[in-house]
């Protein structure tokens, strides 16, 4: 039977102090990664934790979408823990610590808001502040020697979000359609090519053509000032909500969707739409 670790009075007191705030959380993380900590936590790396970080960010967005404020509190805590986890691993590798992370984001916010924390006037429109923000970020990218237009757009972003960010960067240097008319024309063209070629192209080529269509759809979202990720999440929620109503109505007759057919379920779908519209 393995020996229990020796008591750590100061650490234990901090961990069990509900009023200790961030110091408590940082200490919990350090203990989880300690030699006598949690085997699972000790085995993790930046690469293995990154998917969890993305998942927690999505769960925050989901709680906001559903206006589930108690869940949001919990999900924000989970996301914060991800930052602490990465910072702990970085500290162990001699890269930086959690306080360096806090200092870096604090310095960045002060630098990017001279109209709040500096000498610049804050009598600016939101549009002007956005332009100023982009100028500051461009200067930061230049300092990091990110000289190409698309440098610095994170690879791990959700694909639709990254598509919009790439297109915004390209638009700043004039590579953009002048209006939604040209974008819609391109969508029609890409959709037609995909349908026409579906029987003659390889699976990989079909996937590529479909990707082109999605990329142009993201461009249309940008021109319409619509967040494609938020729109798709809303569409997913709507589909889920309406399909559950189909299941409810079928259950009233002792059946499941597998016991129905498309004609009946389509009629129930339209009934669910009418119900939502009041």
Automatic annotation (TrEMBL):
CDD domains in alphabetical order: NTP-PPase_MazG_Cterm, NTP-PPase_MazG_Nterm
Keyword hit for Cytoplasm: no
InterPro entries according to UniProt: MazG-like_dom, NTP-PPase_MazG-like_C, NTP-PPase_MazG-like_N, NTP_PyrPHydrolase_MazG
Stored Pfam families: MazG
Top-rank lineage group of the source organism: Bacteria
The enzyme's E.C. designation: 3.6.1.9
Gene3D superfamilies, per the entry: MazG-like
GO-annotated molecular function: nucleoside triphosphate diphosphatase activity
Limits of the NTP pyrophosphohydrolase MazG-like domain: 44-117, 183-242
Keyword vocabulary terms for this entry: Hydrolase
Family matches, as NCBIfam families: mazG (TIGR00444), PRK09562.1 (NF007113)
Protein name in the entry: Nucleoside triphosphate pyrophosphohydrolase
The species this protein was found in: Gemmobacter denitrificans
């Amino acid at each position: 039977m393995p020996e229990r670790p020796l008591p750590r009075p100061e650490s234990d007191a901090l961990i069990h102090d509900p009023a200790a705030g961030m110091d408590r959380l940082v200490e919990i993380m350090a203990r989880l990664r300690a030699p006598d900590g949690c085997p699972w936590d000790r085995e993790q790396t930046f690469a293995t934790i990154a998917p969890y970080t993305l998942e927690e960010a999505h769960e925050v967005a989901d709680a906001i979408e559903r206006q589930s404020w108690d869940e949001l509190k919990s999900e924000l805590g989970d996301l914060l823990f991800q930052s602490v986890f990465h910072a702990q691993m970085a500290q162990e590798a001699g890269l930086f610590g959690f306080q360096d992370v806090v200092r870096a984001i604090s310095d960045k916010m002060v630098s990017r808001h001279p109209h709040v924390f500096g000498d610049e006037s804050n009598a600016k429109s939101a549009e002007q502040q956005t332009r100023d923000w982009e100028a500051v970020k461009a200067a930061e990218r230049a300092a990091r020697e990110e000289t190409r237009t698309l440098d610095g757009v994170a690879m791990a972003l959700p694909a639709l979000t990254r598509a919009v960010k790439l297109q915004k960067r390209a638009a700043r240097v004039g590579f953009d359609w002048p209006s939604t008319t040209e974008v819609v024309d391109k969508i029609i063209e890409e959709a037609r090519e995909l349908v026409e070629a579906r029987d003659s192209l390889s699976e990989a080529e079909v996937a590529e053509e479909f990707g082109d269509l999605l990329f142009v759809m993201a461009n249309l979202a940008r021109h319409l000032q619509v967040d494609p990720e938020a729109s798709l999440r809303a569409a997913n929620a709507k589909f889920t909500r309406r399909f559950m109503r189909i299941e409810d109505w079928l259950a009233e007759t002792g059946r499941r969707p597998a016991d129905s057919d498309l004609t009946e379920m389509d009629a129930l779908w339209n009934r669910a739409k009418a119900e939502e519209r009041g």
